[in-house]
């Protein structure tokens, strides 16, 4: 049966809808069944356990139509997070749009390390460069109410989303600046922590043309010929904007730790250390 044929049939069950949609998504998504379940759960305003509990429940015609529309968009390569307009990160839900990179679970390591250096009961000046959705900056600001967080981005579309996320999570200790890396910062500002998940994918990396990444902003992903261009800019400038004993904290690709360590030591950074994500890959370097 064609999926389109089923979409107008009467009395389709949850189980049938999921298996048909899974088939439809088989070639376009690596997580076809999960996607089908997430999309149907969304349409029914339930969670996935409901689908497991009620496989024989019949869908209304309206539910079938809305499910069909979402499955077709997913089939065309639109990431689930863009379809839903939101993504979970560090226990909060963040608004996302095609203006921003979808927050990744790996980036939670950056937040975890940042929070470890920021005392609960102390003030600190924190700078998040290239904030995108604001996932990092808002998470830090929310969990360290005494910190003063500055978040920058070159994209005004991204800053709009980040601002909405600050409002959504009731965060007041954050301000937003539009601009290219340190151009967004006054020359006399100094920070205890400068943090960034900059674009670090090499321009010709085939990963950019595969899967969900295809529809994410190039501006948030492409880091020049070897992927390290943004680290060169940030590391060179950050020295002048750190307070004495301030820290620089950068997310990077799983195979970039060594190159970044060399770059940082050439620039006379001290206490350089690398940190592994849950997969055991070095993904964050601090100095
Ligand atoms: N981790 C992202 C990816 O591989 C890249 C994020 C970035 O460039 N900052 O899709």
Which helices and strands appear, and what pairs or packs with what?
Layout: H1 3-7, H2 14-25, H3 32-44, H4 48-53, H5 61-75, H6 80-84, E1 86-89, E2 92-95, H7 108-117, E3 124-129, H8 135-143, E4 147-153, H9 156-168, E5 174-178, E6 191-196, H10 229-241, E7 242-251, H11 257-266, E8 273-276, E9 282-286
Parallel strand pairs: 3-4, 3-6, 4-5, 6-7
Antiparallel strand pairs: 1-2, 7-9, 8-9
The structure holds glutamine.
Write a structural description.
The relative contact order is 0.10. The termini are far apart. With 287 residues, the chain is of the alpha/beta class. Helix 7 runs parallel beside helix 8 (135-143). Helix content is 39%, strand content 18%. The model has no long low-confidence stretch (mean pLDDT 95). The radius of gyration is 21 Å and the shape is elongated. It folds into two domains: 3-77, Ubiquitin-associated (UBA) domain (Helicase, Ruva Protein, domain 3), CATH 1.10.8; 101-286, 3-Layer(aba) Sandwich (Rossmann fold). The structure holds glutamine. Residues 104, 197-201, 213, 221 line the site of glutamine.
